[in-house]
Specification:
The structure holds three protein chains of three kinds.
Chain A (H helix, E strand, L loop, with lengths): L1 H25 L3 H21 L3 H25 L15 H21 L13 H10 L3 H28 L1
Helix pairs in contact in A: 1-2, 2-3
Chain B lengths: L1 H11 L29 H25 L1 H28 L7
Chain C lengths: L2 H4 L1 H19 L6 H20 L5 E3 L3 E3 L1 H28 L3 H20 L3 H19 L6 H32 L4 H9 L5 H18 L8 H7 L2 H26 L4 H23 L5 H22 L2 H32 L10 H4 L1 H15 L5 H15 L3 H27 L13 H19 L2 H15 L1
Helix pairs in contact in C: 2-3, 2-5, 3-4, 3-5, 4-5, 4-11, 4-14, 5-6, 5-11, 6-7, 6-11, 7-9, 7-10, 8-11, 9-11, 10-11, 10-13, 11-13, 11-14, 12-13, 12-18, 13-14, 13-17, 13-18, 14-16, 14-17, 14-19, 14-20, 16-18, 16-19, 17-18, 17-19
Classes of the chains: A mainly alpha, B mainly alpha, C mainly alpha.
């Protein structure tokens, strides 16, 4: 019973994620695209919950749905542009891009189909948050501190570039 | 049940086409001025960015807080370094005027 | 050896970078010149420390490997960063803004490269790569109000994000199929014949991501525009150090983790090599802008370095180490000349270099010998390093590939000599004064020239060091 319900939930989320991702690409108003991207993020968070990675789901909601989407929309609103209804148009390469994406998709599906389903994964922790804490502050110290420096570089860069825009005005 | 209630509502409600200014954006009873899609100032973006920075920091703090008792001094120092580096980012933003409201 | 000693190079680099950022905030405007000197001196100190610890070996927290191979690359990045800082004093001083951040970003991107070269674990590797890439994106836009610089930044960030995403997807497939992000655990799975089709897809994606950073054809399209638009010292740093970092990480992932699946990816590397060497050299011929010319030349150099990967042997890795170190000095030398010339004349066009030999014999000489070393003309060091690369592939039976590479080297001599012809035989435009070279740059130019001659005539110390590092990597 539980597994059928999970399966149904998975397919609903799957359709939600893929459909909203397609909407991101196909819609002509870039703000609408951004909003559908948020929907897609929410769907991915749902899939994380199904995979029993609750903390990751919370992170997905907080960072992607909460902060990144705000940043995205501000980014759109900052740029100078013409008619917003025609802001996410296709260019001459759309056909080629479509063919390449389709070929890649087929390739990955073929590879997936030929791969034995049993993945050599060990047991995963029940307490995901605790395990994450032990990983961050245990064996993964180097990437953990590098992540802090990376965030710092990101903010310094944004301010440097923004300062230039401010001075132009 | 909730969906059913909504669906019944939608089926039963009177359907009149909206006329005149009923479709306009409501803004305290006044007509809206100019196009809605205006260009924002960069200041907003910097705020959002700094928000993102500390949002991510909070997420890293959370597991640490959960396991704080177990992890001990070494983890505490690591976390201090982590926060210290990010505080540097805040200081930088402050000093360079990223927090000024234009 | 205690952890702090093993990590001392990285820790000091991080400390120097963050310290410069803080000092940039504290020092009043107009007095920031000293920050550049401090950055260069600090880097020299760290390089000395790295050299002293060149034999150090150890693993920190499972996922971070300190070994002679990684330290060799760290020294390379440090040399490149020092030369970049020295050639930036004038250039960045003129921009008048953001000097503290500039040097901090150079040093933090060096830190990213170091992490890339030492990463024994996929997440560490990815974070190092991002730290390097993001820093370069910001540095590329440093020329204020210049449309080309802005274009360079946006191109690098969008294409860089795309390639990072592809790489990350490859990493996740690798993790998904092996159940570990540790390179040594992945190699265990691969050794026991656990390669699945999905893993092969992951390898292809990884290859694409790394080839982008190396600027190997067909993943090179960003390089000419970014190189042209970015500030010249940044271009120099980007062309030597980020390429070397990509090679370091590539070697670690493909030779150690995926070494036993070598037959699966060998053909792809051969294709990348041929394309890079041919396209890079042929497209360089019609270039009119010195930075674009050097961009295509650096694409072809990526092809030569890939020869060492094709060889898949200790000799090949040693040749990569040796060639990439000399490539740093040859390319930095050429770019330093371009920087000084731009400071004086505000031009990067080759035709404006006319008569440079009369306006500044030093600049013309450094440009001449750097280009000749890039082309691989004896007695310069580039000849020896190319010789080792060709030997490495011949050793593995790829004689036709070596012949092709030699033929393309001949082509490269042609376009390098075009620049030389303009510099030595052209007449300087009337009324142009002699170019003054600042003392620091003079020293840096002399150093790189000395390196090119010294290791061309007497290569033994460096080859010994490179090949012993390669042997330690392969054991």
């Amino acid at each position: 019973m539980g597994s059928t319900l999970t399966l149904v939930a998975f397919w609903i989320l799957f359709v939600l994620v893929v459909a909203s991702a397609l909407a991101v690409v196909l819609l002509r108003n870039i703000v609408h695209s951004a909003l559908y991207l948020v929907l897609s993020f929410v769907g991915v968070a749902g899939i994380y919950i199904l995979l029993e990675a609750e903390f990751l789901a919370a992170v997905q909601i907080l960072v992607y749905v909460g902060a990144v989407s705000v940043l995205l929309i501000f980014g759109v609103m900052l740029t100078r542009r013409g008619n917003i209804r025609q802001s996410n148009l296709f260019n001459a390469f759309s056909l080629a891009a479509g063919v390449v994406s389709l070929a890649l998709c087929v390739l990955i599906i073929l590879a997936l189909a030929r791969t034995p389903a049993s993945l050599p994964l060990g047991s995963w922790p029940v307490d995901t948050v605790g395990a994450l804490a032990e990983a961050f502050l245990g064996p993964f110290v180097v990437p953990f501190e590098v992540a802090a420096i990376l965030l710092l570089v990101g903010i310094v860069g944004a301010i440097l570039i923004a300062r230039e825009v401010k001075e132009d005005k | 049940m909730a969906w059913a209630a909504l669906a019944v509502n939608w089926l039963l409600r009177p359907k009149r086409p909206q006329v005149g200014d009923q479709r306009e954006t409501y803004e305290c009873g006044l007509k809206t001025q100019g196009p809605t899609w205006v260009q924002f100032r960069i200041g907003y973006f910097l705020y959002a960015l700094i928000f993102l920075l500390f949002d991510v920091e909070t997420i890293f703090l959370y597991p640490w807080a959960v396991k704080f008792q177990v992890l001990g001094l070494f983890a505490f120092i690591e976390m201090l370094i982590f926060i210290g580096i990010l505080i540097l980012g805040l200081w930088y933003a402050w000093k360079e005027g990223g927090l000024e409201w234009l | 050896m205690p952890v702090w000693e093993l990590l001392s190079v990285e820790l000091l680099t991080a400390f120097l970078g963050l310290g410069l950022l803080v000092l940039g905030l504290l020092v009043p405007k107009g007095q920031k010149r000293g920050l550049g000197y401090l950055a260069a001196l600090g880097l020299v100190g760290i390089a000395a420390l790295a050299f002293a610890l060149r034999e150090a070996q150890g693993v920190v927290w499972e996922g971070y490997i300190i070994d002679p191979f990684g330290t060799y690359f760290k020294l390379l990045f440090l040399f490149a960063a020092i030369l970049t800082c020295v050639s930036s004093f004038e250039y960045i001083g003129r921009l008048g803004n953001g000097e503290g951040e500039y040097y901090a970003l150079i040093i933090l991107s060096t830190l990213g490269m170091m992490i890339l070269a030492s990463a024994g674990e996929l997440i560490t590797l990815y974070l190092g790569l991002e730290l390097m890439t993001i820093s370069f994106c910001i540095l590329a836009t440093y020329r204020r109000g210049d449309m080309k610089s802005a274009e360079a930044g946006i191109k690098y960030i969008i294409l860089g994000a795309l390639s990072s995403a592809i790489l990350l997807y490859g990493l996740s497939l690798l993790y998904g199929s092996t159940g570990s992000t540790l390179i040594k655990d992945i190699s265990l799975v691969v050794n026991s014949g656990g390669v699945t089709p999905l893993m092969v897809v992951g390898m292809i994606f990884l290859l694409g991501g790394f080839a982008f950073k190396m600027a190997a054809v067909p993943f090179h399209m960003w390089a000419p525009d970014v190189y042209e638009g970015a500030p010249t010292p940044v271009t120099a740093f980007l062309s030597v150090a980020s390429k070397a970092a990509a090679f370091a990480a590539f070697l670690r992932v493909f030779f150690v983790a995926l070494g036993d699946s070598h037959p699966l990816w060998a053909e792809v590397i051969v294709a990348l090599t041929i394309l890079s060497v041919v396209v890079g050299n042929l497209v360089a011929i019609p270039q009119k802008n010195i930075k674009r010319l050097l961009a295509y030349s650096s694409i072809s150099q990526a092809g030569y370095l890939l020869l060492g990967i094709v060889a898949f042997s200790t000799l090949g890795v040693g040749a990569i180490l040796y060639h990439s170190m000399l490539y740093v000095f040859a390319n930095m030398g050429a770019f330093m000349v371009a920087t000084v010339f731009y400071n004086a004349d505000k031009s990067d066009e080759i035709q404006d270099y006319a008569g440079l030999a009369r306006r500044s014999p030093l600049l013309a000489a450094v440009m001449l010998f750097s280009l000749l070393s890039l082309a691989g003309i004896p007695p310069l060091a580039g000849f020896v390093s190319k010789f080792y690369l060709f030997m490495a592939v011949i050793d593995q039976g790829y004689i036709w590939l070596a012949i092709l590479a030699v033929l393309m080297s001949m082509v490269s001599v042609y376009y390098y000599l075009q620049v030389v012809k303009v510099m030595y035989l052209g007449d300087p435009p009337p009324g142009r004064p002699a170019i003054e070279v600042p003392l620091g740059v003079q020293i840096a130019l002399a150093c790189s020239l000395a390196v090119l001659f010294l290791f061309g005539i007497y290569p033994t110390p460096l080859t010994n060091y490179a090949f012993s590092s390669a042997a330690a990597f392969f054991h």
